[in-house]
Amino acid sequence: MTDLSQLSNQQIRLARRPVGTPTGDDWQQTTEPVQAPPAGGLVVKTLALSLDPAMRGWMNEGKSYIAPVGIGEVMRAGGIGRVLASSHPKFAVGDLVSGMLGVQAYAGLTAEQAGRAGLEKIDTRMGSVTQWLNVLGMPGMTAYFGLLDVGQPRPGDTVVVSGAAGAVGQTVGQLARIKGCRVVGIAGGRAKCDWVVGELGFDACIDYKAGNVRAGLKEHCPKGVDIYFDNVGGDILDEVLARLAMHARIVICGAISQYNNTAPVQGPRNYLSLLVHRARMQGMVVFDYAERFPQAVAELAGYLKDGRMKSREDVVRGLENFPEALNRLFTGENFGKLVLQVADEVTGSR
Amino acid sequence: MTDLSQLSNQQIRLARRPVGTPTGDDWQQTTEPVQAPPAGGLVVKTLALSLDPAMRGWMNEGKSYIAPVGIGEVMRAGGIGRVLASSHPKFAVGDLVSGMLGVQAYAGLTAEQAGRAGLEKIDTRMGSVTQWLNVLGMPGMTAYFGLLDVGQPRPGDTVVVSGAAGAVGQTVGQLARIKGCRVVGIAGGRAKCDWVVGELGFDACIDYKAGNVRAGLKEHCPKGVDIYFDNVGGDILDEVLARLAMHARIVICGAISQYNNTAPVQGPRNYLSLLVHRARMQGMVVFDYAERFPQAVAELAGYLKDGRMKSREDVVRGLENFPEALNRLFTGENFGKLVLQVADEVTGSR
C-alpha cells in the first residue's frame, strides 16, 4: 500500500466567478497533505481529467441543471483514477475508477461522496483510459442518449452535428452513420473537416471558419435537416433552423459560442422555423440517463472493438496547465476530446 | 334560386406586400359580377370571415407552411357562408358551409376548388355561426391539437397561455382546465384578465400591459410552468422560458408580437432553459390535423352545450372594414375572437 503521508495533493480551486473568458486570476492553486481514507471510504490518484465546455457553466452563479462550484472549492471535473487506499466494499486498491474526482492530484472520498461522485470501476479491455473519458465517458453518453433518445434517428435521415470533431460531435456523427443516417458535420478548420470525413466516414463537413455555413448546408442537405445536434448555438443554430426538414428534431446539448458572452445570449432568430416545419427543439442533460449508461457503454465499446467507431483525444499534460487547457475549448484549438493528463500512468489514445 | 346575375361581388385583394403594419395602400377593393357556378361547383354567399394573426404571414413572400397570397389575388380568409347555387353533389342550396372563402362577398368554386378550400357543411345546433369560426373553427382546432397533442397535459400541470382572451387562448385555457390543469393566462388589460378569470374560470391572469410579467409568473406559477402555449413570442416567451418546470413543453403556435417587425425576429434569449429543464419547444400547424377535426368539434361542441366552455367573439361589420379590422389584432384592440360580419344573416355571439 502506498504511504499516503508522503504525498501532497495539488489542487486547482475556483478563486472567483469569471466575467467572460476565464483568466489565471479566476483560479487558485493549492497544495494539501493527502489524508488517510475515511472509514468506508477511499483515496484515488487522479490519472486524467475530462475538460468539457459544460465546466464553464459550473463556474457561474445561478440556477442550472447542477449547483455551481463554490468560490474556494476544488473545481469540479470528471476523471479516471487508480485506487490507492480503500476500505470501501466496492473498490479495492489498484482498481481503475471513473467519476467526479475534481481538478486535483488525489481525491479522498467517503462512501457517500463516492456515490455522489458517480464512482464506478472501469474495464480497460473495453477502451483506453482516455477513451473512458471520451466515447465511453460523459461525451459518449451525451452523444448516445441525445442522438437516440431525443433525436430519434431513422435510416435515411440527414443528421447535422456542430462541434463535429469535438468530444460529443465525433460520437454523434459516427453513431448516426451506424444507424443508417446521412451525416454532415460542422467544424472549425480544414484539418478537422478532413478528419471527420476521411477517418470517421461523415458524408460531408462544413468548415465554419472558411465561411459559408448557409451554402454548405444547402449543398450537403438538399432535402433539409432531419436532426440537428447542437453543441454551439449562435449563428450556426440559426443557419440550421433555416434549413429544417419537416418534423425535424433539434437536440440542444450546449451552446459553446455563448458561454463566455458578457452580453445576453443570442437567441435563435429563426425559431419560428419550428412552426413552419412542425419541428421541435429539446434540451438534454446526460446525468438523467445514468441508469442506462452500462447498456450504452457496452454498445459503443463494441463499435470501438469492431472498428466501426474511432476516437480522437487531445491530451494536455500537467495539472497546473488546467486553466490554459480549459480555454482551448472556447477558441476551438483542441482537436478531439480534450483530456488533461495528471499522472504518467495513462493508456494513450487508441 | 337566387338570381346571381343581380349580385355584384365585392372583394379585397392584396395590392402589394406590406412592410411592417399593413396600411390601406396594401389593399385593393374590387367589384366583379357574380358568375353562375361552374359545372359540378357552387356559389357561396359569405356570411362571416375569420380574422387571424396568421393572415399577416400569408401576405409575406417566402417559404412558409402555406403559399403566400399572390399580389392582385383576393386575400385568403376562412369563413362561413350559405350556398346560393350548386351542382356539387355534396352541397345543396341553403346549406351553411365553412371553408376558405376569401375576403369577398361571394365565392364561386369548382368542385376541385371546394376541396382545396376545405369546404364542409356546418350544423348550427352545435354552435352559432361565429362559434364555428372560433371554438369549432380553426382557432378551436389549433387550441385542441396544440394543447392535447403537442402539449400533452397531465392533471395538475401548470399551463400558461398568452393571448389568453384571444381566439386560440380562450379555448386553450378552458380546455386545460377541463383536463384538470391549473391555468394562468397572459392578456393585455384588466378587462380581458377579469373576463378569463371571472367568466372562463382561469386560475389567474397576468396583465402584461400593467407591467411585471416576471413577477406575475413567479406568483402564479410557484412550481414552474409545465406547458406554455405561445401565441405571442418576444419578451413574454423569454419570461416564461425563465420559469419552466422540468420536462416542460412549449407549444409554438404563433408570435404575434413579431409579425409586423421590420427588424429581424427577436429570438428567445433564454432558450438554454430548454437544456436546464430538459424541456422542448415544438411548432404546430393546425391543417395537419384535418382528419381529426370532426372528433375535436364533437368534443368541444359538447363542452359548449353543457356550459363547461364559453366563447367570446368580437364582431366587426362590413367587408370594406377588413383592412382596419385586421390591424386590431396587432394592437390587441379586439376582445375575443375577431370576426368580420359580411352579410346580415349571422347568428350572433351569445
TrEMBL record, chains A, B:
Residues 1-12 have a biased composition (Polar residues). Residues 20-340 form the Enoyl reductase (ER) domain. Pfam families: ADH_N_2 (PF16884), ADH_zinc_N (PF00107). Residues 1-36 are annotated as: Disordered. One of its GO terms (molecular function) is oxidoreductase activity, acting on the CH-CH group of donors, NAD or NADP as acceptor. It comes from the Bacteria. Keywords: Oxidoreductase. InterPro entries: ADH-like_C, ADH_N_2, ER, GroES-like_sf, MDR_fam, NAD(P)-bd_dom_sf. The keyword Oxidoreductase applies. This is NADP-dependent oxidoreductase. It comes from Ramlibacter henchirensis.
